[in-house]
Design brief:
Elements (H helix, E strand, L loop, with lengths): L3 H8 L1 H10 L22 H28 L30 H31 L8 H28 L9 H34 L2 H5 L27 H17 L52 E4 L4 E3 L1 H6 L3 E8 L5 E10 H7 L9 E5 L8 E4 L1 H5 L4 E6 L2 E2 L9 E3 L12 E5 L6
Parallel strand pairs: 1-10
Antiparallel strand pairs: 1-2, 3-4, 4-7, 5-6, 5-10, 7-8, 7-9
Helix pairs in contact: 3-4, 3-6, 4-5, 4-8, 5-6
């Protein structure tokens, strides 16, 4: 096999000398800014291309499901928009449906679990291109400057989106800013940089994989692992160290890490014994009792809801052309309906439970509005926190499965699950299924 490092040295000195002369003999900062600092024989266009294609598919899935999640919040309705001033970035928003009832459960689960699964692949990809991030000088042409700027936004955006997303699903609200707008705008910045990067790199990735294929590198043992031929991006080590792992081993290590992440998080999207395997999910650790034995996102105590505020003095206020106050006994005396419906949270967990309650459409008529003519704004007893109120569309109110739930699985709601009454709407994000409801305001017209 030819001496790759010496062949590379024969190519580069002239360029380095001319550049050093223009810089007064200075060859750049020491350490990671110098090519000889990076010595792994595994780095190169082939490895980066394989990891890049995996990320291209995975990030596309996570991005699409993330945008769907934002649409599910119905941000065009009053009080639902967590990102005021979004302007043109909301161009794709659409009326969120109530069918199929499992849609949000699947898309949000895919968003969260998919993001967690991609973490080892993302780290491997960053490791494979890290020499490029420290290349000196920063740019030799306008085209290279544009590429490096997009790379900075790409890497910074990826780190920001993954770190803030993971902290949010773990309930570590340590941000000095609001998570929702930061994650939304950060996603668009990242996606713009991602699109530029794909447009620049994808043709080169495809050429690399067509030229070298997969079989030869994947069959190469550690003993036979050699650096790839010199590349224009400077990923291949100029002074490689002996291989301690094959490229196949590195891909297996990253893929195995992804499978572990998947296995420790997907259980939160499933009912049954597998839920106990979701060790990376903070939800579901605080179960209720008996029929109320399922996830609690925020407890009543954490939001200032007390047994005294939900006791016999509690009344549900209906606001519309007719105003009235109903006790829990009044609600239980009305026609009650039972449906098995999922409840799915933005943090990724979901479960199907059987809910019994009064149809929102019946309460709308009681308040003097016609079915399908008005949406509703629900207001909670909770104090503080996000989503103390939420707006539902007229379509959501009119769906016969949309309930003001009083019972779950044949038992009264527990306090942590929203006693004395909570909203349950098919295919709605969990935060719109308001707990501890004190008021239903039907004065808002369509949508």
């Amino acid at each position: 096999m030819p001496d790759v490092s010496r062949g590379r040295d024969r190519v580069k000195p002239g360029k380095k000398s001319r550049l050093a002369a223009r810089l007064g003999g200075w060859s750049g900062p020491p350490g990671p800014f110098r090519p000889e600092f990076w010595r792994s024989p595994l780095r190169g266009p082939w490895l980066t291309s394989v990891l890049g294609l995996v990320l291209l598919a995975g990030i596309t899935l996570v991005a699409i499901t993330g945008l769907i999640s934002y649409a599910a919040y119905e941000p065009r309705l009053p009080g639902n928009d967590t990102t005021p001033g979004k302007g043109l970035l909301g161009f794709y928003l659409f009326d969120w449906p109530t069918d199929p009832v499992w849609l949000y459960r699947v898309t949000q689960g895919a968003h969260v679990v998919g993001g967690l699964t991609l973490v080892p692949i993302l780290l491997a990809k960053l490791w494979s291109v890290i020499p490029r991030l420290f290349a000196w000088p920063p740019a030799r042409s306008v085209a290279e400057a544009v590429e490096r700027a997009s790379l900075l936004l790409l890497v910074g955006g990826a780190i920001f989106q993954f770190v803030t997303g993971i902290l949010n699903i773990q309930l570590f609200y340590v941000f000095p800013f609001s998570f929702y707008p930061a994650h939304f705008y950060g996603a668009w910045i990242f996606l713009a940089a991602f699109a530029v990067h794909v447009a620049i790199k994808l043709p080169r990735v495809l050429r690399t994989l067509r030229k070298h294929g997969l079989r030869d590198y994947l069959r190469t043992s550690v003993a036979d692992t050699r650096p790839e031929p010199p590349d224009p991006d400077g990923l291949v080590a100029t002074h490689p160290a002996p291989a301690t792992m094959s490229r196949r081993g590195l891909l297996a290590f990253a893929g195995g890490g992804s499978m572990i992440m998947f296995g420790l998080s997907v259980g939160q999207c499933l009912d049954g014994p597998l839920r106990r395997t979701a060790l990376l999910a903070p939800h579901g650790r605080h179960y209720g009792t008996g029929p109320n034995d399922f996830q609690v996102n925020k407890t009543a105590a954490s939001l200032g809801v007390t047994p005294a505020s939900t006791g016999e003095s509690w009344r549900l206020a209906l606001v519309g052309p007719h105003r009235m106050a109903l006790s829990r006994e009044d609600l239980l005396a009305m026609p009650l309906y039972t449906y098995a419906l999922p409840i799915a949270c933005v943090e990724g967990w979901s479960t199907v439970q059987t809910w019994t309650g009064v149809r929102l459409a019946d309460l709308a008529r009681l308040a003097g509005t016609q079915t399908g003519s008005a949406g509703v704004t629900t207001r909670s007893l909770q104090r503080g926190g996000y989503f103390g109120q939420a707006s539902l569309s007229a379509v959501q109110v009119a769906d016969p499965r949309s309930l003001l739930a009083l019972r779950v699985n044949g038992a009264d709601l527990s306090l942590d699950h929203g006693y004395p009454a909570r909203v349950i709407v098919p295919n709605a994000p969990g935060v719109h299924n308001t707990k501890w409801v004190r008021e239903l305001d039907f004065t808002r017209k369509r949508p």
